[in-house]
Amino acid sequence: MTKSRTVLSGVALILLFAGVGAASLLFRSALPAISPPAPDSFDRTLVKQGEGLAQIGNCTGCHTMSGGKSFAGGLALKTPFGTIFSTNITPARETGIGAWSRAAFVRAMREGVARDGSHLYPAFPYDHFTRASDRELEALYAFLMTRPPVEQPTPANRLVWPLENRWLVAGWNLLFLREGPSNDNDRGRLLAEGLAHCGGCHTPRNKLGAEDTAHAYDGAWTDGWYAPPLNATSPAAQPWSADALFAYLHTGLSKTHAAAAGPMGGVTRQLSQAPDADVRAIATYFAGLMKDAPGARTPLAAIDRQSEIDKSDPEGAALFAGACASCHAPGAPMMQQGRPPLSWGTPLRVDSPHDTLHVIVEGLASPAGPTGPTMPAFGNDFTDRQIAQIVAYLRARFTDLPPWPDLEQAVAAVRKGVGQ
Ligand code: HEC
Ligand code: HEC
Ligand code: HEC
User: Which CATH number is 306-416 given?
Assistant: First the structure.
């Protein structure tokens, strides 16, 4: 009796401690509001450094709506758990981070906790940003606090029950957040895993939406696009050398691969302005990860089976000749400017046709660096069936890989903006 009572009180004590521990994790304290610091109170070199880091982290990519004011937020991010709106990170007092001290900003970036103590959702990649150094976070803070303040409220999120309860994120953090700066002396790896958050799109996620680090850079779906592998499983036709990667990340075009499209286009437009040394470090790191990929060991010559495929698929051939050949046929003026042959683009070589379909339906905005032709959108010119025919033709003519199944469904999915 006494014994079991002791055991019981022991258990109660443990539960009590666990409860207190959990509560302090669940409910974080608010940090005091400050008056927005005067922009000229920040060191200019620090602000400039912060600008470069913001480009590496593509802060604007998530925090600026198309046609909206820079960093004023309001962009809808679709996740499997519902829609989350990015917040206003201009120094606006009421609706932005104007009242945030540096400590509050650092806590958000390292721990995913807002100034008022509530937990932020990991759609904000603080699980990566936590790796940045104190000095880098100070520079980012200086950069953001010197932007023009824009009062613009953030729309309410639309999440599946029970996720509107922000404290639930505390459990996620316990499981998946490895908090704190990294002292990795490989600058490329540090940036890739930290501020540049390349795994945010290229690493598959588990059921709770956390990156599956055992499959780092194995390729993953993001917003209806497929971000291909960036490791030894890369299906690229040609080697992703450090120079090719630097050109791609820095200009949006690799002459031995393709142009960066969709979400990657936005990433490269920011990286094109970031410090060269940092972009080169990232390029060197990924070249190392991809050095044993098949295309790195045995580069593929350009494939073009035109005479054979035009015979077996005259309809596809006619569509291609009418709409695409003026730019993409061997010898076309655009090709003479040194654009890559279609057979060297990874989108034609992956298991799903979605990226190729996106490019055809939506067109391809000019890469950051080279000027010259851009790809027009063909979504309104063709039916689903015709687009499926063109894509089947591309895959047959420009690769040695099996045909893609269910193309028409994939066209419909791409038009609706959904993935796989
Ligand atoms: C992949 C998209 C994405 C990127 C990239 C991104 N953010 Fe965010 N960020 C978000 C979302 C979404 C939220 C809101 C999360 C929430 O409401 O829980 C957010 C919230 C924040 C907050 C908290 C603000 C508040 O009002 O609560 C800060 C600070 C922030 N981001 C800074 C940055 C900085 C600095 C960068 C670049 C280094 C950056 N973010 C890049 C998506 C992103
Ligand atoms: C917002 C999501 C997103 C982020 C963040 C992102 N990528 Fe991508 N990336 C994509 C998508 C989607 C594609 C496929 C589109 C295409 O091929 O144009 C892609 C394509 C690529 C390719 C081309 C691969 C090939 O074989 O053709 C490379 C290289 C690449 N990304 C590197 C990076 C690096 C390095 C980073 C971090 C600095 C990064 N990506 C961050 C989404 C992203
Ligand atoms: C006015 C010129 C132009 C026309 C017409 C055009 N494209 Fe493009 N296309 C481009 C440019 C520019 C790019 C980006 C540079 C690159 O990737 O080589 C591109 C890129 C692509 C890509 C991505 C490259 C890759 O492998 O990832 C595909 C796929 C593609 N085009 C298919 C087509 C198809 C199919 C048609 C006809 C329906 C077509 N294009 C018509 C200019 C054009």
Answer: 1.10.760.10
Would you say residue 400 has pLDDT above 80? yes
Q: Residue 12's pLDDT band (boundaries 50, 70, 90)?
A: very low
Among 304, 306, 328, 337, the mutation site with the greatest number of ligand 3 atoms within 8 A of its Cβ is 328
The residue ranges of every structural domain in the chain are 26-176, 306-416
The closest ligand to the CA of 122 turns out to be: 1
User: Is residue 225 over pLDDT 80?
Assistant: yes
Q: What is the 3-state secondary structure (H, E, C) of the chain?
A: CHHHHHHHHHHHHHHHHHHHHHHHHHCCCCCCCCCCCCHHHCCHHHHHHHHHHHHHCCHHHHHECCCCCCCCECCEEEECCEEEECCCCCCCCCCCCCCCCHHHHHHHHHHCECCCCCECCCCCCHHHHCCCCHHHHHHHHHHHHCCCCCCCCCCCCEECCCCCCHHHHHHHHHHHCCCCCCCCCCHHHHHHHCCCCCHHHHCCECCCCCECHHHCCCCEEECCEEECCCCCCCCCCCCCCHHHHHHHHHHCECCCCCECCHHHHHHHHHHCCCCHHHHHHHHHHHHHHCCCCHHHHCCCCCCCCHHHHHHHCHHHHHHHHHHCHHHHCCCCHHHHCCCCCHHHCHHHCCCCCHHHHHHHHHCECCCCCCCCCCECCCCCCCCHHHHHHHHHHHHHHHCCCCCCCCHHHHHHHHHHCCCC
- What does pTM read for this prediction? 0.94
Residues with CB under 6 A from ligand 2: 192, 196-198, 200-202, 222, 225, 227-228, 230, 234, 236, 245, 248-249, 257-258, 260-264, 267, 282, 286, 346-347, 355
